[in-house]
Amino acid sequence: MTRAGSQLRDATDVEPVTALIEPRVFIENRTFDEIEVGESASLARTLTRQDIELFAVMSGDVNPAHVDEEYAHSDTFHKIIAHGMWGASLISTLLGTKLPGPGTIYLEQTLHFRRPVTIADTITVSVTAAAKNAEHHRIAFECACVNQRGETVIDGAAQVIAPTEKIHRPRVALPEVHLHEHGRLFRALLARTTGLVPIRMAVVHPADRDALLGAIQAAQEGLIIPVLVGPEDRIRSVAAAHDLDLTGVSVIATEHSHAAAETAVALARSGQVQALMKGSLHTDELMHAAVAPQTGLATDRRMSHVFVMDVPTYPRPLFISDAALNVEPDLVAKRDIVQNAIDLAIVAGVQTPKVAILSAVETVNPKLRSSLEAAALAKMAERGQIRGGVVDGPLAFDDAVSPAASRVKGIASPVAGQADIVVVPDLESGNMLVKQLDYLGDSQAVGIVLGARVPIALTSRADSALERVASCALALLVARRAAAQKPAQDEDPLATRPAARGRRPRSGAYPTT
Fold first, then answer.
1. Distances in Å between the alpha carbon of 140 and those of 35, 93, 143, 390?
2. What is the average per-residue pLDDT within 388-400?
3. Least confident segment among 9-23, 247-261, 397-411, 438-452
4. What is the DSSP letter of 508?
5. Quick one: CA torsion of 125, 127, 128, 129, rounded to 10 degrees?
6. Separation of alpha carbons 230 and 246, rounded Å
7. Do residues 424 and 433 touch, judged by C-beta distance below 8 A?
8. Is residue 43 a contact partner of residue 98, using CB atoms and an 8 Å limit?
9. What rounded mean pLDDT belongs to the chain?
10. pTM value?
11. Cα(445)–Cα(471) distance, integer angstroms
12. Are 447 and 324 a contacting pair, CB within 8 Å?
């Protein structure tokens, strides 16, 4: 034994290696000669929503009686029911794995569907050998599926060729399956806007199909009243080329994208629109107009961008800031970045957001500015300089989102492992994090700028229609919250401090993206 092996064996706090290895599970058949008439086998399974969804994905059967709760409530059974063949597949499972088991050849099956199976029903499936044919090694089985109330839901008969040789094999371990419905988070966001009056939104330079389509779909969802700002001939040409109806939609003509940005900002400043959405111009063009002294939308709150991420492997929406505007924010700017993100998370339905201030490590290191600022921000939140959330840092990214990682490292924190918001050290790290989650993690994102007089939806050319619509939903939620909290005097959209008209934004912000 090696020295390392001896150390492992002698350590009192480590279980023996053999205890860490799970015993192998085997699957074994019953041959034709072993099976007697009257012999039976059974299994039980409780139906879950995931069973239905997996069966629908595998089979392609998206009958609304199985997958559409609203429709199912109005249908015959008034609730979601399982696919009939889900129960029938359990009969196949029993024949193929227990009786007769491996080596069985399925020949024939008759089925009678007696009752529906609903979520949380426990179905006991049984097969009983009814007759044997020695010449062809065939066995007839009676089959039944019975629910927890003793009611037969499926019955029938099967014919199989039973195996003649004994088979004893390790049971194959199946991969874990995690279902994620793309867009579910964003649809939940849309649901929060139910009953809200749509806002007038200036769509800045919507000179391509996606930008125009996003605005029209958001209007159809009742989120916005779009005001299209840009070269009118080009906008109408794009609409005609893609069969998009602009009937009743306001168009304010400008010569080019710079003029469109300036005009849209002026509309917001004068109160004629309550939000802006980036069309097919560059981010820096729009933000240059938004932060312009005297004519822009600056308030006493630092403008910052927040991504709302739908990450398949994370159990909640993940808010990431700032990955689009502030290049190397200082402590004062980060205070506003944190507060903006908390305010948005609350608007989106997170009651008390948990905020992780990220650094490379979870300890304060004088050589890492990000760790020092993270500790300072946590203390600022403790002293009431940041409100509405629970803030902790520094935390490494794994500590912020993984309960296992934080537990192994012994981190005692109300945020670790369950962060709603992660605040990145700078734009580069944030931008890379978002794109890694997007392109390697199969995530989706919507983004919005806060801290201006009105919310600004910064869409991307790669955004789907749903992501663009969800951005408008965020803008609507923010704008309506601001309107509800706005006092008689002009105030910043998230109602925290009086607006400073014409104030020049701090340096180090708004790169070209």
1. 11, 16, 10, 65
2. 95
3. 9-23
4. S
5. 180
6. 14
7. yes
8. yes
9. 87
10. 0.70
11. 9
12. yes
